[in-house]
Write a structure and sequence with these properties.
The chain is about 55% helix and about 15% strand. The chain is α+β, with helices and mostly antiparallel strands. The protein folds into four domains: about 150 residues, no CATH class; about 35 residues; about 100 residues, CBS-domain; about 90 residues, Uridine Diphospho-n-acetylenolpyruvylglucosamine Reductase, domain 3 (2-Layer Sandwich), CATH 3.30.465.10. The strands form three sheets. The protein has a five-stranded antiparallel sheet, with helices on one face. The chain has a four-stranded mixed sheet with strand order 1-7-6-5. Strands 2-3-4 form a three-stranded mixed sheet. α1 packs across α6, α3 runs parallel beside α6 and α4 packs antiparallel against α5. The relative contact order is 0.06.
């Protein structure tokens, strides 16, 4: 059997140049596709899809199939780049011998980086939404053409990551989207100092936090609940209910923790009218509604949906042992979003009294969330719900009247103590507002405790 050699015919120079230019254009197109679709605004594209844009819907579907889309684009991009480099290397070796390898490497590196990567990506990033809508059909065709290879590549990549101990969770994308939205809200507030914009930012923050805040953080504590003894005479119950500033009043029997009903002023007045205005024969237990008990771990988002579903406005909060913690209303949740509804004063924050020197005298029961929202502070609320609780947590002891603590860019002076509870304190901002905001972001607060003379 004789040996023989088979040589490929040499490609014409013009054909090689044309092929390399074509491959660079394809690489640039793929780079623009990848950058535009991954950088396009989710919110704008979702709104365009809602209005009937087919291309926006196509872009959104491609983003939902991110693994397959990215694999297809990278596979196509690397394929054309490698093929272009191979053609250039072959042509230059034929012209310059072994030195052609070095020439080809330098030339293709410059061409691929400048024309195949940087230029198209800068253009696509600057006009992400428009470019994504234009190139969406190209991306769909690419994914359809390379789908089998892209799927295999994606599975192989996930397998390697799993072997290396890296877990790719589906929920991370949703979490990243939420963080992106929060960042946009903060950026919006940072570039606008208008009072209306500041209020809008507070509302948007509160809406995003509904799922992370429990009813125990905003409820009216059991000590502050104005409840009525159901064993009293109907006349006494009527007088207390009508003199209460609240429309719904809890009824207790035996002990204040034993809530047996919720008395609605409208139902009470309707029953009184039906009884000819005589309260002595009213059966209060029949007029009152059954109490609705909820666990203190319920999130505000879940409770808001439960209020809407049950068409109720009032719930009694209990802990894991069934003990009374407080009460929460639909208005409490709405005020968590929009701020106080009832107050008519210029300064609308109960428990906080601004002073002429710029400080604030604050009741210890005021929640940290309310203070952060009102004054744009950054006090942490992970370990305490109220400002008194935060002082106790930071001080690691029960403070004495007159003691001063400094942390998170604020100065806290204890003004009054009721038994072992911080009842009133004075809060002052240290330095200017900009310095306070920088200090508030520190992970560890510096604490200074001094005993007043």
């Amino acid at each position: 059997m004789s040996d023989f050699e088979f040589d490929l015919p040499d490609l014409p120079g013009w054909f090689t140049v044309a092929a390399v230019v074509t491959l660079l254009l394809v690489a640039a197109l793929l780079s623009a596709v990848e950058t535009s679709i991954t950088s396009a605004s989710r919110a704008r594209l979702a709104e365009m899809e809602r209005r009937g844009s087919r291309r926006a819907a196509l872009v959104n579907r491609l983003r939902d199939q991110r693994d397959k889309f990215i694999s297809a684009v990278l596979l196509g991009n690397n394929l054309v780049n490698i093929l272009g480099s191979a053609l250039t290397t072959s042509a230059l070796i034929a012209l310059f011998g072994d030195a052609g390898v070095i020439y080809a490497t330098v030339i293709m590196t410059v061409l691929v980086v400048v024309f195949g990567e940087v230029m198209p990506k800068l253009w696509a990033f600057a006009h992400a939404d428009r470019v994504a809508l234009i190139l969406a059909p190209v991306a769909r065709g690419l994914v359809a053409l390379l789908s089998p290879f892209a799927t295999t590549t994606g599975l192989a990549a996930r397998g390697m990551l799993r072997i290396l101990g890296v877990r790719v969770r589906a929920g991370e994308e949703a979490e990243a989207a939420a963080q992106e939205l929060r960042g946009a809200i903060e950026l919006h507030g940072a570039t606008h100092r208008d009072a209306t914009v500041r209020k809008e930012r507070q509302m948007l923050r509160s809406i995003l936090d509904l799922a992370d805040v429990g009813v125990s953080d905003i409820m009216v504590h059991r000590r502050q609940v104005a409840a009525i003894d159901a064993d009293q005479k109907p006349e006494a119950i009527l007088e207390q209910a009508l003199s209460s500033p609240h429309t719904r009043v809890p009824l207790w029997r035996g002990t204040p923790d034993n809530i047996v009903g919720i008395l609605h002023a409208k139902a009470l007045l309707a029953a009184l009218r039906a009884n000819g205005g005589d309260p002595s024969s009213l059966d209060i237990s029949q007029i009152a509604a059954r109490p609705w008990f909820i666990p203190d771990t319920t999130s505000l988002l879940d409770q808001l949906e439960a209020f809407r579903r049950r068409r109720e406005h009032f719930a009694v909060v209990v802990d894991e042992y069934g003990a009374l913690m407080g009460v929460v209303t639909l208005e409490d949740i709405l005020e968590e979003i929009v701020g106080d509804i009832d107050e008519k004063h210029e300064f609308r924050m109960p428990g906080v009294r601004p002073q002429s020197d710029g400080s604030f005298v604050v009741d210890g029961s005021v929640t940290i969330r309310d203070l952060n929202r009102q004054f744009d502070w950054r006090l942490p609320d992970e370990n305490a719900a109220t400002i008194a609780g935060l002082v106790l947590f930071e001080a690691r002891r029960i403070p004495e009247v007159g003691q001063v603590y400094t942390f998170h860019g604020l100065r806290f002076e204890i003004l009054r103590r009721k038994r072992n509870q911080v009842a009133t304190l004075r809060i002052s901002v240290i330095g200017d507002a900009a310095a306070q905001k920088r200090d508030a972001g520190t992970a560890e607060a510096s604490k200074v405790a001094d005993t007043a003379a």
